[in-house]
Amino acid sequence: MPNELDLMVRxxxxxxxxxxxxxxxxxxxxxxxxxxxxxxxxxxxxxxIGSAYSFTEFIQPRADTNYxxxxxxxxxxxxxxxxxxxxxxxxKHGASVSxxxxxxxxxxxxxxxxxxxxxxxxxxxxTTVALLFVLVGLRGPRRWIQQRSSALGSVAIELEPGADxxxxxxELLSMPGVTVRSVSVHEGDQKQRLVRxxxxxxxxxxxxxxxxxxxxxxxxxxxx
Length: 224
Known about the structure:
alpha+beta; Alpha-Beta Plaits; 2 domains; four-stranded antiparallel β-sheet; two-stranded antiparallel sheet; 8 helices; 6 strands; 56% helix; 18% strand; elongated
């Protein structure tokens, strides 16, 4: 059982590593930033400490006790709980989805805090450094790849009742830098129509988000 000073150091290290990750998210203007990541790391560290060292009085030979304690259940529920929080960071707006990277960073922050709480300072610090490299160091290469590659994806455009599918198809065909590979129109209930197309081009979510502003378009979904 670690002494109180050792446990205090673990809590402080968990807060510092969570702050390092949260600061990057804060500087990029994400909703889950500095305070959120520190709180997640602190909570995970405390849960890990509690699960590892708070049930020692129940550790007895199986034949001498009726209690069965599985301390790993606390750690497993940290993953579930943070997954719920991460889901709240994911936002779908029209044809685009944001917050996936922040949700993933929250998940890793919980793992960092949990490992620190169990005394794994080196692995937690190494993971934090690796995550910051991914979030900051790969920002430039990611932008370079996006600018030089064209994405092929399927899009489903749901029209308002009575809307003209031909006008939507014409707008797709006239988008600069976008190639329409195939297109089809499906009739739905209440005179609603669904336009499905295979398109290829750069920055497709942003281009299709502009189309969502049309009064005759109710929703747009992009698939792989």
